[in-house]
Amino acid sequence: MIKPIDLACIIDDDPIFVYGTKTLMELANFCKNFLVYQNGEEALKALVNLIESKSVMPDVILLDINMPIMDGWEFLDHIIKVPTEKSLTIYVISSSINPVDIQRAKSYSQVSNYLIKPMTIATLQQMMSELAPNM
Amino acid sequence: MQTSRVEDTFRTKDLEASKKELDVIGLETLKHAGVGRGYYDYATNFFHLDTVACKLHDLTNADAAFTFMKLRKLYLHQKSRQAIRIALDSLKKGEQKFDITLLLVTFRGEQKWLRVIGTLTHSLEAKETVGLLFMDVGSSTGVSRDIGSKEVLIDSFEHAISGIGMVNLNGRFIEANPYLCKMLGYEKEELLEKSLIDFVPPEDFEEMEHILVKFLTGKIHKYSGEKMYVNRKGHRIPIFLMISITKNTSGSPLHFVIQASNLFQLYQSKGKLASLLEIVTNQNKRFMEFTYIVSHNIRSHTSNLAMLTQLLKMKNQELTEEYLNYLDNSVEGLQQTISDLNEIITLHTNQSYDLSKLMIYNTIEASLQKHIFKSSIASKVIIQNSIPQTLGIVHSPKLLYCILNQIIENSVKFKKKDVDLILDFKHESNEQYDIIKISDNGIGIDLDRYHDQIFGLYKTFAVGNSNRGVGLFLVKHQMEALQGKVQLSSTLGKGTTVQLYFKKMMTYGEINLAGR
């Protein structure tokens, strides 16, 4: 039995996705705590704060692409420039099946994988096994 | 005396022999000189040729006698045949002799010029005949080729499908082919009263003069390029123009030869091709946009539905009120996206817009009535409208109203909270477009950040308002549906200006009037 991770972060403006993913995470015993942000800008501000105050960082970030104010790409462009003690684990998760988006996500070395919505229990379990060796 | 007698005797005695001798030698000499002989019999209509004449005509001795019909096959050129007919008739009418030059085409296809001398004689049976002598005057010297090619040249000149003419050193027309006359719109006699410069557009005068001077000073020998000329009706027509100069043997210029090919149709089809390409490019762009919307926006709702049903299937999940709401929202979102897509598709596939000339000032007023004067914020809005009340724009009334509504609605929605909204309407125009500029002093958009997303579907740049991110996307497509375009400039904190480019068009009524 894989142990749940401590802190997961969801950056998505779609309340249904956030609700569903949180429910699935609880059911799969994926994590102990969540952080949820509605767009890239909100997430960036909060995460930079956490980094600067040397607080506990999320073990995994699930990042949506299409969001108002600051989209996933802009968030990535900013966050990769922020120096961190431990490197961040980021999964891009989007409903877009456009190959252009998939290629673009893969061009960031900090992005672990590109996942296509909907979120499923199986996806979460796969992520847990990928994250386990790092913990 | 003795001597004289001897001489006399010699003359008398040998005269007959000498005559015979002369006949033989004469014939031999003619043969060596390549002169062919023959005769034509009026009664039988037959030509009879000797060996040399046969050879000249490229005939075997077996063909040495033939009718006038066969002759027609040898003298293919109508002018040559006519000349023979006229010459033979002239002898009948009392002439003693004829001397003509004819173009012959042998059965081997060789062309040669023959000089034919005919004299009226009477045969032994006292029949009326024409004695004929044939001499090759062309093929060996190359004259025939020259004269032949001159005929061909004249023929091409008359029937050319480009304008060809000659202009003297003062620029006056001295020769013009029918096509050139047609292009310029004058009869040949009229054209010969005109100068080249009469057809040059004023802005090209200097250049044309410059070119002709270069010819005269020997700096150039030919010129070619795409030019415009002005025809009799004053229309400008594109041509490919070639100019060359002819000179006499001592090298002094004689006259200019000009040649002009009409490029009007080529330009027209080039234009058509370019506009077709533009349509295809735009359709392709829209197709890509649609693909993205389908691959992303529709999927975002269906994946939510998939996730929710997945959760429902799992144990200990109840169908709560909250849950039902989420399901509801997903379905509604999906329906909305499909209906938005449908609207765009209809916009571009509906080719039969009911176009009419609309007074844009009035349309703006109507839109302001709806969104401002009758709303709660009426007292907080200042309108500056400098658009001429008489300005008409050809457009679809429904589309134009939608476009203006959307832009005014946006200005109201993104108004600064504690500052009165100033809405400014201006008109500008250029050759192609009437431009309506609508500016506000609202919160503005950071275009450095969002310039590539501003007209995108479901793109929103602020949180917490009812904006769906559809308005500007629709405006863009509504403008493009009637060959217009939209541009937006904005400064964060200062305001936004939307520029609507309306393609200048004529209504069908006006087109019909102009056509008359």
TrEMBL record, chain A:
Keywords: Phosphoprotein
Pfam family, one: Response_reg
Record has Zinc-finger as a keyword: no
Gene Ontology terms: biological process: phosphorelay signal transduction system
Chain positions with 4-aspartylphosphate modification: 64
Domain of life, per lineage: Bacteria
InterPro entries hit by this protein: CheY-like_superfamily, Sig_transdc_resp-reg_receiver, TCS_response_regulator
SUPFAM superfamilies with a match to the protein in the record: CheY-like
SMART domains: REC
Statement: the UniProt record of this protein carries the keyword Phosphoprotein: yes
Positions of the Response regulatory domain: 7-132
Protein name: Response regulator receiver domain-containing protein
Lineage: Bacteria, Pseudomonadati, Bacteroidota, Flavobacteriia, Flavobacteriales
TrEMBL record, chain B:
A GO term for molecular function: protein histidine kinase activity
Reactions catalysed, as given in the entry: ATP + protein L-histidine = ADP + protein N-phospho-L-histidine
Superkingdom field: Bacteria
One Pfam family per UniProt: HATPase_c
Enzyme Commission code(s) on record: 2.7.13.3
PROSITE patterns: HIS_KIN, PAS
Swiss-Prot/TrEMBL keywords: Kinase, Phosphoprotein, Transferase
SUPFAM superfamilies listed in its UniProt record: ATPase domain of HSP90 chaperone/DNA topoisomerase II/histidine kinase, PYP-like sensor domain (PAS domain)
Domain PAS: 149-219
Entry keyword annotation includes Transferase: yes
PANTHER family membership: PAC DOMAIN-CONTAINING PROTEIN (PTHR43304:SF1), PHYTOCHROME-LIKE PROTEIN CPH1 (PTHR43304)
Protein name in the entry: histidine kinase
